[in-house]
Design a protein that fits this description.
This protein is α/β, with parallel strands linked by helices. Helices cover 39% and strands 17% of the residues.
């Protein structure tokens, strides 16, 4: 997968992805992640990338021309899937991460200040993405979040495929509690079922734990999960038990 990031702070991108699983995948040639300084594409000698908004108001707006020049230089044939990190964008989710994982080439624009000149969205087909209902000082951290979530799904980045498939949100549910050695610590023991060796019972226990956590913390996710017959059966049985009580 190829990922190009347009930013005024390229080091925030390149320095981060020298580490961990993503860094190893880049070194192995599974991923090609490059950050481009938008200022290099500014038409004036001062490398200006922002200006005051038309219509008045406080703050600065990122100018259309430097962004346009950068996109055309990096992707002259318009072949990449283009994203803009924007607090007013579509909420990012594991579903979108899996969708983006199928793309061969992502081009990500990191906004700053009061946002980006709207005309860049009219000149190119863009997907605006938000990582949450809050505002950050720039689009670099959201871009890092999106890149990490997408790239860890690329085949080969995580050696244990089952590990990624059991992540929270992968199947629409929150993750189950995990334990490792020692078996007992400070008087707290690992649940007996996890050391029983009965893989089917362990699977069902984990599913039940995921369902309980999801019901408490993110009940809004359960409707989509009911498409799974086993999950739907468990939830129906619990609903019936509550009604009988």
């Amino acid at each position: 997968m190829k990922i190009d990031v347009l930013t005024i702070f390229p080091e925030m991108i390149t320095d981060t992805f020298r580490h961990s699983l993503i860094g190893k995948a880049v070194a192995a040639g599974l991923l090609n992640i490059q950050a481009h300084d938008i200022r290099k594409y500014a038409p004036d000698k001062h490398r200006t990338v922002d200006d005051t908004p038309y219509g008045g108001g406080t703050g600065m707006v990122m100018m259309v021309e430097p962004l346009y020049r950068a996109i055309k230089a990096i992707d002259p044939d318009n072949r990449s899937r283009k994203l803009i990190m924007d607090a007013s964008g579509w909420p990012f989710s594991q579903k979108i991460a899996k969708e983006l994982m199928l793309e061969e080439w992502l081009l990500i624009i990191c906004g700053h200040y009061k946002g980006i000149d709207e005309r860049i969205k009219q000149l190119f087909e863009m997907t605006e993405i938000s990582i949450g209902d809050y505002v950050l000082s720039g689009g670099e951290i959201p871009a890092l979040v999106v890149i990490d979530a997408v790239c860890r799904l690329v085949p080969g980045v995580i050696k244990e495929v089952d590990s990624a498939m059991s992540d929270s949100y992968f199947n629409g549910l929150l993750g189950w509690p995990e334990y490792t050695r020692p078996r007992e610590f400070q008087g707290i023991s690992v649940p007996d079922i996890l050391i029983s060796g009965d893989h089917e019972k362990i699977r069902k226990w984990r599913l039940g734990q995921s369902l309980n956590k999801t019901k408490k913390r993110r009940p809004d996710l359960l409707a989509a999960c009911r498409q799974d017959s086993e999950i739907s059966e468990i939830l129906d049985a619990e609903d019936e038990h509550v009604e009988n009580d």
